[in-house]
Specification:
The structure holds two protein chains of two kinds. In chain A, strands 1-2-5-6-9-10-11-14 form an eight-stranded parallel barrel, surrounded by eight helices. Chain A has a two-stranded antiparallel ribbon with strand order 3-4. By secondary structure, chain A is an alpha/beta fold. In chain A, helix 4 links the parallel strand 5 and strand 6. The mean pLDDT of chain A is 95. In chain B, a hairpin with a 6-residue loop joins strand 2 and strand 3. In chain B, strands 1-2-3 form a three-stranded antiparallel sheet. In chain B, helix 1 packs across helix 2 and helix 6 runs antiparallel to helix 9. The model of chain B has no long low-confidence stretch (mean pLDDT 90). By secondary structure, chain B is mainly alpha-helical. The chains are: A alpha/beta, B mainly alpha. Chains A and B meet through strand 3, helix 3, strand 7, strand 8 and helix 5 of A and helix 1, helix 4, helix 5 and helix 8 of B.
Chain lengths: 298, 225
Amino acid sequence: MKAESEIASAQKLGVGLLFNHVLPTFVSAHSESFDYLEIIPDREWRDRGVNSTQRFSVLDKSLDFFRRVRERKPLVCHAIGLSIGSAALFDTGHVEQIQRMHEELCFAWHSDHLSFARLPQGNHEMHTAILLPLPYDGEVLDLLIERVKHVRSVVQCPFLLENNVYYVDVPDQEIGEAEFLNRLSGESGCGILLDLHNVYVNSVNHGFTPESFLRDLDLSRVVEVHIAGGNNLLGFYTDAHSGPVAEPVWHLLEETLRSAPWIRAVTFEFHESSYYLLKTDGIRAELDHARRIWERFC
Amino acid sequence: MALEVYQEIFCRMVASSAFRDRVLEQPDQVLNSLDLTERERQRLIALAGQPGMRVNTAIHRANRLTPLDQTLPLTCFLLGARLQPVLERYWNENPSENLQASAECERFSAFLNDEMRAGRIYDPYIEEVLAFERVCTEMRFFTEAELRRRGLVNDDLPPLVRIVTFRHDPVPLLEALADLKMPAQDITPGEFHLLIDYRSGEAEFRLVDSQGLGALRELSVREEE
């Protein structure tokens, strides 16, 4: 399928929730509060490493749970483990495993991050435990375009890449972030997962207005939006997913939904450690807030 | 090739503030022999000096801690002020490979057991609390079939029922830890069998004495027959 029609044909889902391990009870008891569930597949399988013969085993318990959810709600896959920007490693095994998960759970689409986190170290690997920014240069763009094309040829549902959050400025980059995303999406055929909290965090820490970033971004490539909250650390505002959505993000959501023609979903993310700030009522309140905005524009 | 090296140095600067300081203070010594373009070299030096690198390092460490906090919270609490140096040793010896909670729980548990055997950690309660949390994690993450497959079952009990043997009364011990309080030093010693029943999907705990344990095992064998 051509990239444009792939984005346009993505299923319109509504307002969803990123699954984490404090949520099983909520998901079962409050399924009317969200339209779809987004899952992080890497957290649901055992990965014995790229050199292992029997590399992946999906936890049966997770699979059973998501199969039951899938009977009632669409599922979206949001991976954290591909590390698509790692120069020394392109993990085609990870891509194939996403396709196997798609065959099991029939994702509406799948996504990962525009960043790198993994480095081969002899027979082992190092994982930075943080998604690090790529330099926005032509060399990196070319590398990513080929890799995205590979992902799209293997996994039989649309593929999105998420704009990254970054706490350092890589100097002397050839291309601006929004233009890089536009070119990557346009030339490789992936859609954009626009994380509005990432945009807000970057704008606070690096001194630009989020609106200017959104003006430069080709919003016709955006399929999904993430919304979240953060907190302060060492003089920076971070994408900690701590509790409710940051207030300015609601405004950005309105602006985005007003202007982006192919948005199919808005996902609320929070980290399980901040569950105590939300609890059931808090999660429902965030989802309801997102739904009110969604219904005004979509 | 140069991009690979650039990324490796970037990662090392995130994982280690000492290495970052070396890049900043002695860039020629650290970077000159590496296959980097001049632009990448300059980028790395600029990154090393940015305050945002401290945030990257803090997040790197927090994210490495998350799977341990999810699976072994009581053990981490019990380690108290010892946790940080233990984590430093653990992270130095075990670079992060992935962030999967059950796998990281297994790896850190093995490390702690080695530390205890080597006498680097001494605590009257850690071994039993660690064993307890490890069993809870296994039962939380794995189905009955997986537990059987992995040999994580008590031979004579249903897979979702496990016994953890404590050398101190587990009731005051676990209650104190659950309230984020250090347990008293004089908890009654002895042999205590805590039964963890996960068959309903939620963990249920029950203390059983030796007689009860024997009866339970007989019952289980009869049920299987």
